[in-house]
What we know:
The protein contains 16 helices and 15 strands. The chain is an alpha/beta fold. The chain folds into 2 domains: 153 residues, Rossmann fold (3-Layer(aba) Sandwich), CATH 3.40.50; 171 residues, Transcription Regulator spoIIAA, CATH 3.30.750. β11 and β12 form a beta hairpin. α12 runs parallel beside α14, α14 runs antiparallel to α16 and α15 runs antiparallel to α16.
Amino acid sequence: MLKKLRFIEPGNHSPYRKSIANLYIYNKYIRNPSTGLITLATIAKGIVDDTLMYSESISEIDFDDVCGADIVFISINTFNAVRGYKLAEQIRSSSAAVIAFGGMHASLHYTEAVEYGDYVLTGDGDESIVDFICAIDSGAPVDFPSVIYKRDSGIVNTGERPQPEDIHTIPNRNLVYNYAKMAKRYDTLWPQVHASRGCPHNCSYCAVIQHFGRRIRKRTPENIVADIKEAIASHKRKVIPRLSNCVWITDDNFAEVALGIEFLDDDSFKEFNKKSNYKDIVQSIKNIRSHGLGVRGLFIVGAENDTKGVGETIANYVIENNIHGCLIQSMFFTPGTRFYRENEHLLIHKNWEKYDGNVVHYPKNIKPHELQKEIILASSKIYSVKRLIHAIFHSEKIFKILFIGEFFWHRSIRANLKKELPYLESLSAVRPQPTELDHSFAAHGGAGRPGHG
Length: 453
């Protein structure tokens, strides 16, 4: 009989550690735990009472506790896959626990993930995790859909299962080790609620549609409101109020709307099968602002027609359209997406730890290090000291707070991007053709990259 379950959300190359910077910088040593994994832990607790989740976003892992579990679930995205594999190896060396991987990277790149665990659960886990726990508990065959495991010298794939329709579980945030204390201590952590899953569009680089499907599955308004109340309560302080009581609902919060603008030219929208255009984006921003809401822009660089100056273009666009905050990253290459399959030959390396906004491919009209500098330039101009002072004295309270926090966040982002520049500058200036790259080098950090260990 199963007595103990543990869930782990790995950090990246900089897992949580105590630092004064946690008071004002998000995503350096502290960040929000995964709401999706908390949801699965909540479901699992209904089966096995001794269930707990560790997130390296907010705490260290008690390995003595984890190694005593019957099953350890590890959820990974591409950027923290390397860390997840290392944790699995560490647990396996000291424990008889069954190790099961899940998450977007494990689901879409299960042939890699299964090498480090006993099983991989693919897709949404709301239903499969129940079947899995019950099968392991009873000793029954794990032969239901959405499971990957190794048998002899091959890999068994039990096939896909329909996406769950009931996504109304309200995550019990108290199941995350140390979260109750951290959420109340730091304003850099805030309530998050997922209102739906899936996306009807078909952008070639997007892993969401591969993992969650193209049909939007919704929660009821009543269920979402109940989750919002619970999320706020879990972050509320008794004495000193929080700087902000914003709740992030998937992409949006009550003060602003996050737009996946991503590109500023119609050719790039067409290149990635994104059903948007420049004119519609501009009109959308005007419509949102007319309702008293702010706009947050999400931008991607590295399209085929990007050249020197793309950073300046993005910065000017953000400033001229009064976009209150932004995230600028290089093109996503998530294993399992159509874009990844068609452009794998352009990858510089497969060190997943670096797949967190860095340039990881050879663009067509600009060198990798030049594109990295464009991201740094755009961030520097948008989050300049001059604009910080202006925000402090002229922005509304919520946007003042957000800009101050993002000023320090982007400074941290730029520092990480600059660390990668010497390696990118050392690369060949010749863009590889499909047959020129040898991807036999290691897919995870232990072996490093050629010339960049």
